[in-house]
Target: MFS transporter
Amino acid sequence: MSDVNRRVVSILAFGHFVNDFLINVITAILPLLVVHFGLSYSQVGILTMVSNVSSSLVQPIFGFISDKKGKPWILGMSALCLSAGLLGVAFSPSYIWLLPAVVLNGIGSAAFHPDGSRAVYFAAGDRRGLTQSVFQVGGNLGLAVSALALWFLGKVGFGGLAWFMVPGVLSAALLFTLIRWFADRLSEYGERRAQGSALSERRPSRIGMSLLVVIVTVRSWIMAGFMTFVPLYMIHHFGVKESDVWAYSFVFLLFGAIGTVTGGPLADRFGQRNVIRLSMFISTPFTVLLPYLPKQFVFVDLAIVGFCLLSTFAVTVVYGQEMMPSNIAMVSGLLIGFAGGIAGLGVMMMGYVADAYGLYVALQWIGWIMPIAALCTLKLPIDHIRLMQQVAKSQVTPTLAK
Model:
């Protein structure tokens, strides 16, 4: 990785792994929480909503504050906050005490993502797509491993949640070693903005950003919808055993991780807009067709959709950061957290559809959302790197398309 600070990127990727592991443990152990605290379905819904709002929907707020008054110690503190929240869950005496612990856990995650993505941006050199992919894969792996939390606690008991403090504290210690480096980068970044460099002179593409948020929201909606409803669909429609249904989510996430690693380098070479556009148009027919396929083709379809959709996971973040270069942290929070949070509300709506009309209809509805994202890509502005290359050839002063 030329001009890439490998040590920094590695620490940030590990921090992302721990972050997404610790925040998703709450979701993974919901069945255990229901038994341990005697929760009703309404209380489970409230708990999920509180976790979602505190960890996802508030990320742009943290990003906005960070862009204005960036604090290099936030990264380390976010890991400690996550760990403390999970420890609070382990020792909560009742449901009422469980809620603030979940909020603390969520705030730790919300604070990490905007500054984590901005730090990756600073460490990337000329390989922003590749380094953002490495960062995002760390989070994807954390999400996948969090599924093992329920198995682990089944072996050691509910108090075993305290053991999850270990990766949290280790992550915090490593992230605190980046304070001086991050402070220097923030200072350089602030000086460039104050001097009126090309960074601040470039006009933000607000229309492009709006379209990108729609695309990322749809992508997150499809991903969450498939993860939630496809396993249930395979059980009820095809009679797959509950003990075997994990394989469908595993294939989707596995090829998604491969796509995430692949998408960044492809965007560095062929352009971010091109990769996003191609990904969405390839994904559309396979997403729409899934509920109509026979059982033997579902694995193949999930692999293709997972690879194509998640290949844009890192690309959309870098693309958005270049659209609004003066608001890197806020953009990261908007695309990583807020869009995912809104998509979560969409999946909740699909749950009502599934209750009323069946899983087959819910998957049809989810599939027909995909063309919206594909059509939005037709109006995306050219990415900044490709614009600079065109300008270098034509010797014309660049202006980012609005």
In short: DSSP finds 20 helices and no strands in the chain. Residues 206-384 form a domain with the Growth Hormone; Chain: A; fold (CATH 1.20.1250.20). The CA atoms of residues 78 and 108 lie 4 Å apart.
